[in-house]
Design brief:
This protein has helices at about 1-20, 30-35, 35-40, 55-65, 210, 315, and strands at about 70-80, 85-95, 100-110, 125-140, 145-160, 165-185, 190-205, 220-235, 240-255, 255-270, 275-285, 285-295, 300-310, 320-330. It is mostly beta strands. Strand 5 and strand 6 (about 165-185) form a beta hairpin.
């Protein structure tokens, strides 16, 4: 009984601290924009790739690599220095149509329950959610590829805890989310890509009685918008070597939120031999590395970056990130 009273008094003490941080409807928006597909996607839009953020690049990849179908499964860990450890899994399936190609994908995230630097010691948070994506790409001229992405389901939840008590349950869900992409082949060595992203989010924060002192939960709702324009250029000077440069500009806006997005990425892909490809990139001023082995109709890869996600620094620090993946084509 004494331990229960002690825990309850601590909950009330830290609930005041959390409340002072103004847990409004904007609370789940950070998790949604960081751990949704817009925050997790590789910042490259001008080179052919089955998992490209640019849906137009997918059709080009299937043509160049002579693939009728492709599947890939990815698993990664984002280990934040002053926040949770987030696990991310991807499953992707692509196939050719009589005209164009279709990609179906699912991305999921779940995190540990952890303190974050933004709330200070005591309160803890947990993230979880998933995204379902459908994309279509098609070649409309010898040099131009177009693509469209529709996100029928995307929801990220953020829960706030103290000890065993849940203080607040929040979620942000896309009510209208899509991407339009184009890729143009300037010549046999140079390509440019552009992607416009629009995401209208419905956010809800439910403050529980242990936090507010009220007899019933209090729901606070608001709408937010994320608009992004991503442009990039790819250059393949010789066979086996490719370079890319990408710039993403945009904004996340709504009640109590006005975040400017301004990200740049540069990288080089180099085949060390016919089967082994090394990629080194500078993503938002942070180095990242990946190594992929290509077998006959399959590939296996891993990537790593240290102290990335600079935009999350004031909330839960930067993150060390690694991924592994396995792909198969027919």
């Amino acid at each position: 009984m004494l331990r229960y009273l002690l825990v309850l008094s601590l909950i009330l003490l830290f609930a005041g601290r959390v409340s002072s941080q103004n847990l409004g409807p904007e609370t789940p928006v950070l998790g949604k924009t960081i751990f949704g597909i817009n925050g997790l996607a590789i910042l490259e839009v001008a080179l052919p790739s089955e998992i490209s953020y640019n849906p137009a690049a997918v059709e080009l990849a299937l043509q160049l690599f002579k693939e009728e179908q492709y599947v890939e499964a990815d698993f990664g860990i984002l280990d934040f220095h002053a926040g949770p450890q987030v696990k991310n899994d991807w499953q992707v399936y692509l196939f050719r149509l009589p005209k164009g190609s279709l990609r179906l994908a699912k991305y999921g995230i779940t995190s540990s329950v952890s303190e974050i630097v933004y709330l200070g010691p005591g309160p803890k948070v947990k993230f979880q959610g998933q995204t379902i994506e459908m994309s279509y790409g098609r070649q409309v001229s010898p040099k131009l590829f177009l693509g469209l992405v529709i996100i029928p389901s995307k929801e990220i939840k953020t829960d706030v805890f103290f000890e065993v008590e849940n203080l607040a349950e929040t979620k942000a869900k896309s009510s209208l989310h899509g991407r339009l992409g184009a890729l143009y082949l300037i010549n046999s060595k140079t390509s440019v890509g552009i992607v416009y992203t629009y995401d209208k989010m419905a956010a809800k924060t439910r403050l529980l009685p242990v936090l507010t002192g009220e007899p019933t939960p209090i729901d606070i709702r608001a709408n937010y918008r994320e608009r992004l324009l991503t442009v990039g250029v790819g250059w393949q000077p010789v066979e086996g070597t490719a370079l890319y440069l990408t710039w993403q500009k945009g904004k996340v806006s709504g009640p109590n939120v006005s975040e400017e997005i301004d990200l740049k990425a540069f990288g080089i892909q180099q085949f060390l031999n016919p089967n082994l490809c090394l990629q080194v990139g500078l993503n938002d001023k942070v180095l990242c590395y990946s190594l992929t082995y290509y077998g006959q109709k399959w590939n296996l890869g891993a990537s790593y970056s240290k102290s990335t996600y600079r935009r999350t620094e004031e909330f839960f620090g930067r993150a060390d990130i690694w991924y592994i993946w396995l792909g198969k084509n027919w």
